[in-house]
Amino acid sequence: MILGDLDIAVECDQWGDCESLIRDRVMLALKECKTDTKGRPCELSIVLTDDDHIQELNREYREKDKPTNVLSFPALESPAAGELTLEPGPLHLGDIVLAHGVVAREAEEQGISFEDHLSHLILHGVLHLIGFDHIDEDEAEEMEALEIALLDQLGIANPYGSEAQS
């Protein structure tokens, strides 16, 4: 997949300068995933926000009244992991929203750098946009294996522990 437009909206000051890292991770996920977009460039948007805003979105769209680290809103229909139903026109994959506070707390709790955790969540979010999911065990294993392989290319350890490598 070729990245066309990547819109990054920074809604809170805590994020600092991470746009280059985000762009690199999005490019990696799209390059390594073999979804056929018929040569059309892909577009997506990323919102870097705070815990309060993501809690509102999580409550509204997932009926979970708590902040979460990342939400993905795919714009395209996906019949199977890595497959997309393409309509004519621009290929907007969807939106990813990340909450700084949750991402920072999780990184600290896991004893990893903020950048490594953010890298994982960006890859995870992009995979959701192109049709991967982790609702059932088989889907979760496929998605986690792909995440682990992508993170390995970046020199980032497996975030799921040894059980995910089976």
SSE arrangement:
Elements: E1 3-10, H1 19-32, E2 42-49, H2 51-62, E3 70-74, E4 91-99, H3 100-110, H4 114-129, H5 137-153
Parallel strand pairs: 1-2, 2-4
Antiparallel strand pairs: 3-4
What's this entry about, in short?
The protein has 166 residues and is of the alpha/beta class. Helix content is 42%, strand content 18%. It has helices at 19-32, 51-62, 100-110, 114-129, 137-153, and strands at residues 3-10, 42-49, 70-74, 91-99.
Account of the protein in words:
The structure is a single chain. This protein has 166 residues and is α/β, with parallel strands linked by helices. The protein has a single domain (3-165), classed as Collagenase (Catalytic Domain). It is 42% helix and 18% strand. The protein has 5 helices and 4 strands, in the order βαβαββααα. Strand 1, helix 1 and strand 2 form a beta-alpha-beta unit. The radius of gyration is 15 Å and the shape is globular. The two termini are 28 Å apart. The model has no long low-confidence stretch (mean pLDDT 86).
